């Protein structure tokens, strides 16, 4: 069984670790906490916090190891993923065994498909994107790089979500809607109109509250 290291040592990392163990393809070799380096050596979620970024660099220098970025900040995930990929770090796709992934779906390097998620025909998912518990991406959806769809988000058919956008839990997005890059959509929103890049929007129907 191949080893994998999880970058992140919080709640989402626990969810990802559980999916990895259910799938049985990888062994969780440890966690990286780049925010709290003092946690090095601490037991966490059935493994150990290995340390900070320097600990991962040392480990990877000895023997290349697969990595998954399991933290919520979309911009940081986007930047770190690009930097480490350029150094040859491998980011496998992780799919919980309870998820439903239809034929024709495309999954980018390092993306995570959580428990009970549904991805229907010809959906395309970008690199390092989080499709959290129970999310639905209907047919022909396009979800960019380092997006986070929180639990129970539902995207109807032909929806586009731009890079680094966060969509809050329970949000529903009407078919053929375009949500731009670097947006934040508040939890429980109902999106019935396109959203441009870089806005914060929430409500039913969702309305733009802040712009760049």
Describe this structure in words.
The chain has 212 residues and is an alpha/beta fold. The protein folds into two domains: 2-71, Rossmann fold, CATH 3.40.50; 94-203, UDP N-Acetylglucosamine Acyltransferase, domain 1, CATH 2.160.10. The chain is built from three helices and 24 strands. The protein has helices spanning 11-23, 53-62, 74-86; strands at 2-7, 26-32, 43-44, 47-51, 66-69, 94-95, 100-101, 106-107, 112-113, 118-119, 124-125, 130-131, 136-137, 142-143, 148-149, 154-155, 160-161, 166-167, 172-173, 178-179, 184-185, 190-191, 200-203, 206-210. It has an eight-stranded mixed sheet with strand order 6-9-12-15-18-21-23-24, covered by helices on one side. A six-stranded parallel sheet has the order 7-10-13-16-19-22, with no helix packed on it. Strands 3-4-2-1-5 form a five-stranded mixed sheet. The longest helix is centred in the first third of the chain and has 13 residues, at 11-23. It is globular and about 50 Å long. 43% of the residues are buried. The model has no long low-confidence stretch (mean pLDDT 96).
């Amino acid at each position: 069984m191949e080893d994998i290291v999880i970058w992140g040592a919080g709640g989402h990392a626990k969810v990802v670790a559980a999916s990895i163990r259910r799938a049985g393809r990888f062994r969780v070799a440890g966690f990286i906490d780049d925010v709290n380096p003092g946690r090095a050596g601490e037991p966490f979620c059935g493994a150990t916090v290995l340390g900070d970024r320097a600990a991962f660099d040392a480990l990877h220098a000895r023997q290349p190891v697969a990595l998954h970025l399991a933290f919520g900040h979309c911009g940081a995930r986007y930047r770190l993923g690009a930097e480490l990929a350029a150094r040859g770090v491998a980011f496998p796709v992780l799919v919980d065994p309870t998820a439903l992934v239809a034929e024709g779906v495309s999954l980018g390097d390092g993306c995570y498909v959580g428990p009970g998620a549904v991805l229907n025909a010809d959906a395309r998912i970008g690199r390092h994107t989080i499709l959290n518990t129970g999310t639905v991406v209907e047919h022909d959806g396009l979800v960019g790089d380092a997006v986070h769809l929180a639990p129970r988000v539902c995207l109807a058919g032909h929806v586009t979500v731009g890079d680094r956008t966060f969509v809050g839990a329970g949000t529903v997005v009407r078919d053929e809607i375009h949500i731009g890059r670097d947006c934040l959509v508040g939890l429980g929103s109902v999106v019935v109109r396109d959203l441009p890049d870089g806005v914060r929007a929430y409500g039913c129907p969702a309305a733009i509250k802040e712009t760049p």
